[in-house]
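Quick start: read one record
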Amino acid sequence: MSFRSPLVRRTLAASAVTVAALAGLTACDLLAPQDTLHIEEASVGASATVGQVYVGNAVLVSGSGDTANLVVTLVNQGNDTQQVTVQPSGGQQFEVSLQPRQTRQFGDPPSEKTLVTGLGTKPGGLSTVTVTSGGNSVGLQVPVVTGALPPYGTLTPSPESTSLPSSSSTTGDMVPATPSPTPSPTPSR
């Protein structure tokens, strides 16, 4: 068999072009940026890792005035029990003990533990929440949101039991804690 035959030369040329094209196409991954190497969270809240504890999607859901509800998920990624302290700016700190591989969510539903008063940051701003665990500490810049965003509508802080809801804040579902007498045009007997 001779390489002088036109059919053999064309076959060899086509094979060489195919091999070169395949080598060029597979090398694209070497030069193109890999999207999976730079993962960005698709959430509103702030997240961080403090020691062995992952702090996930922390947000402050603004209520009336300067109160907010801290919504946060804590995950112990270690094999030992972790003590975690959460200190929101303007709120009372709370401490949590997380068992190995335990996940706990706070603020859903709102509670006294997650209530932040004296917030001083309006919705759309950021407020600092300091999380400490295992001798490590991080100050998260947590976004302040309103209940107008669909996932946060039920997470606004509930009114304190000592205050009565105002007529502008009540809805058809709410019943005031203390009913007020209303005059009615009923005939007396």
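Confidence is low (pLDDT under 50) at residues 160-189.
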